[in-house]
Amino acid sequence: MITRARGVRLAFAGIAAALLCAGLAGFALKLKSKPPTTKDQPATAGTQESAPPAAAAAAPEAHEVTARAPKRRGIRFGDFARGSLADPSAPPYPSASYCEKREAELKKWRETTIDLTYDDVPLHEITAELLRKWGLKVGIDAGVTRDAHISVQISGLDAASSMEFFTEIFDMAWVVDGNGESWLVPLAKKHLYETKEGRELSEIEAASAAMLADRTAEAPNPLDAALEKRLDGTRFTPDRAEMTLSEFQKELIVKAEVYSQTNYKAVPNSTEVKLSLAVEETTVRQAIDAAILPAGLVWFVGGGIVNITTAEARARGEAEKAVAEAARKERAKTEDDVFAKTVALEGDDLAIRDVAERISKALGIGYSIDPATWSRAAKYGFDGELHTLREIFAALAKGAPVEVTYREGKLWYVSRGDGK
To answer: What is the largest CA-CA distance in the chain?
Structure first.
């Protein structure tokens, strides 16, 4: 059984998608069924091609960005609130037509909260329920087993986050095709449904989510701290001495508001794992220990939920975590080196897309920019002085909600989630 706590966000694509082409309430979800390169790469559509320094465009005739624009050592920028708005005179985003279709489809899923409970129900009945009750249509590719029996309990979760999590668990993909229609497809067939523009937008969303994960990796998770406190401060008494793992997880939700997730690959059938419990009042932590450990399982707090797995899977997870942390530190070092590069820009009334283009041409580094950042009304001015990229990117963030990261040989300009 896999459950999620209220307020927990699946950090990758769900956050980014809402920002790029224009969440997570509490939910319980149970399912049952069977290092980056640093070589500079040119950007592609939705991205811009890099060029040698000699190809840099001539600076336009200088004029004031605003009457009293703030200045950051030779860099001018306007009011943040105004710069955050969309500029109606901005040129169309390179994949504007597809982006509009995609956003219209995803918007319906993000803004719909769903509640449903099934036990051993064929997949096609679940998708039929989504259409009948909420008007959310999703096709099933022939490569996905329509009759696969799935147990799922979802409460108070937006449909988009639910679909992202669901497909990740079962190694499927949720894709919006070129017609703006949603499909469940095997991972191996994702490229057949996703358009070139769709792939580029997905790459930008992934880069944005990865940047957020990297930059918050060392920050303590307040949800974990709150859960640790609840585990020790909440009393719990099981209804009976014998129950399955999935039943125990349901009791944790109902009686203690403690949500949990089972590693389905290590423990594929939580409804068949039998637990023995002492029918007496204890803390939730003591109750979990008493139920889980004798069954040969282990548990830990992470992501604001209780994670249940095997000792072997836990050890593998820790080893993978160490490798990922080393890769994160290497990415951070590479990004620091790139951000230390200097470039001299000159001109006024430059949009973020203009600044990105000039940096790309001056340094020969490709870039990608999301639709919202592309059309920001923010304008910047430069006096031709040498600045590091870090200084320039800090100035960009003063005039609009934008962050820049360097990954896989590219600079990625993405909307900042806090809007500040």
So the answer is: 80
